[in-house]
Amino acid sequence: MKKEVEETGNLNVGYLCTRHQCQLDRAQMRAMRWIGSRGEVADYTYAELDCASSRFANVLRTLGYAGGETLFTFLPKIPAQYFVLLGALKQRLVAGPLFANFGQEALLDRLADAKAKIVVTRKAGWSKLQSIRHLLPSLRHVLLVDADAHLDGEVLSYNLLMSQSHEDFTVPETSPNAPSLLHYTSGSTGKPKGALHRHGSFEYQQRTGREVLQLTPGDIYWCTADPGWVTGTTYGMIVPWGLGVSLIHFGGGFEASKWFEVLEREQVKIWYTAPTALRMLMREEEQLLRQFDLSQLQHIFSVGEPLNPEVIHWGEKILGKIIHDTWFQTETGAILITNRPGLPVFPGSMGKPVAGIEPGILDEAGEPVPEGAEGHLCLKPGWGSMFTTYINNPVAYEGKFRKGWYWTGDMARRDDQGYFWFLGRSDDVINTAGHLVSPFEVESALLEIPEIAESAVIGAPDEILFEKVVAFVSLRAGIEWSRSLELKIRLYISNKVSTTATPQELLVIDKIPKNNSGKIMRRLLKARYLGLEAGDVSTLEV
Length: 542
Prior knowledge:
Among the domains are: about 5-255, 3-Layer(aba) Sandwich (Rossmann fold); about 430-530, 2-Layer Sandwich (GMP Synthetase, Chain A, domain 3), CATH 3.30.300. It has about 550 residues and is α/β, with parallel strands linked by helices. It contains 18 helices and 27 strands.
């Protein structure tokens, strides 16, 4: 692949996933089969993918957008999502896909921070944007994929613009360090941080597709991740299309029988999904799952949160397949530590590093711990898909690097065979169903509800979600807890932050514990919730 990339003379990701595939005699190969929630099907060849993305690149050029400006998609898994992202990359814009279930607060935080110039969404998305439009001075255009006519000079019809655009587009020369994708990650004590990636990530990402996922040209592959998260762009778009793979995209939600119908009917060879989905499948009757013929399915991979051993044993028993757990982060841009075909699997382990990746387990002082001891999972910087910065937050970016290591924020241990074992987060970020939720974001939204005086949010173990969101609230004087108030809170968080951030449990307490400097003691709340010893409470505010 490195030789092929060098021969193109252009390192643009949009070009390498479309035009370059056509130049490799894959023009008439199926690049994508999109399956809608109602069963509708649309197929696109690599030539059609190239034409549609080039049309959109010309739309951007006509509207006056150039390299370095920021575009966001706020769309579900529909074909336009991929045409827009690829077209934006061709025109060298910074492309930021947003999770389609984000609420207004989550949208505002990300769009304002990135100084978004253009958003592509549906009418439903525009209804959320309208109330915050005045707070986004950089936003010039909103393109609606389900509007047949322009609403005004700024809110335009995507379909009309595409019909008036030409499919001939010369992709500008793009250096490896040119910015490409922007994905936001959550922090425990502040606003979301925008991790910026570069076009030069392509080569290492493709390598993981070949060596870990075992993808080859023409393979039928299904990645279930939403494009709003890094897995959905890296392994649901860039890696498969960079390798000439036939990608399945299913626009519906989770339903065991429908998912297995897709696997069987589409003859999926390689499947990349999430532990939460696999744990939900475990709850289904064995008879339901056994009626499907999955003999063509060669490999199953998992990402998002640790894969518990029970799921691996279930996969071997019911599916007759080993499920390979993989580990990476928004910041790392691609798989770094992983289980993979040909490597013995120890259930519960993260696996071993990809060749060339150097992890370390360090103590608080940044010194290596003895073999088998717990510590901070750190990485030697320099891998090809590493993020380049947190936009507008150099302090947070610099804080990720210490003593020559990148600090992942995860805790782990390494055994005597070189396998790594995930132990948990070193901060308070909640990993629920593979989505990272910032307790700070949820706490801030809770405090906007008039009845709530104080709030604190923690993550607690959950059999299906890995972690569930648990919110503690203290009410203002004279307010009584009720079912209607509980529903009001859940709905507010869902609309303001996102559906994934909505608390699974809401607990009313008299006072939120804080230390002498006013910081919420989430550790103490978590210990109380789990029935554990509180530990050191010497700094507890009295």
